[in-house]
Each structure stands twice: as structure tokens, then as C-alpha cells.
Amino acid sequence: MADNEPFSQNDPCYYTMVTQSDFMREYYPSGHVINDHEVYPDIYRMEEEPVLDENGEPTGKTNRRIYKELVPRYSFAFQQIITVKQTVHLCGNDIQFELTKDKPSEQEIKDFLLFVRYKEHLLHVSGR
Known about the structure:
Layout: H1 20-27, E1 43-52, E2 58-69, H2 78-91, H3 106-126
Antiparallel strand pairs: 1-2
């Protein structure tokens, strides 16, 4: 939004009310709206074919065939994936940093020790 535009509470992008049942429908893919046949009905198509005589020439009559085209119904559990990733991030094990080389160089050791001191400084500053 530009600085000179007025702020409007009637803006449809301002907020959206989401109920608890909507959250649950988003969480479980079986409850997604795409699976509702009333919201997204299957498509029926009609095709007319000319009736041919025994010589293969059209008789002027037609046969009608009705085909049911199923709407693809794909739903993904993005909310479940996000929840698992957030839970692992918040409650997972502490991250440990180690030198993986058997014989690291002097510069690699200095860099690693500098990193460890920087990490300890951040913990001290944040009060943990």
C-alpha cells in the first residue's frame, strides 16, 4: 500500500475470519473443499455421432452419448507438514556443531573456535 492511500477497514484483504472447523478442514486433506462433489461437481459432456448406413454414408440421424468426466481431486497435507516442522523446530534436540575432519587445518580450527565464541556471545547477550 502506498503512503498516500487511505487505510480502509472495508478492505477485503485486511482480515479473514476463520473458524475452528475451517482450520480442521485445512489440516486434514480428506476435509478439503475439492473433495466436495456439490462444490466441484463432475462434468457431463454430450457427443453426437452420425448414424451410418451399411455403405458407411450418413443417414441424417445422430446418436447421442453422454460422458461423465471426473474432476481431479488432489489435496495435500500442507498444514500437517507445517505443524510437524514447527514442532521439531521448537521442541527438537539442540543443534550441535562439530568439526568433521580427522585432521583439520589451523585455519579451520581458528574459524571453528571463533564461531563457538560468537555463539556463546549471542547466548550471553540474549540472557540464556
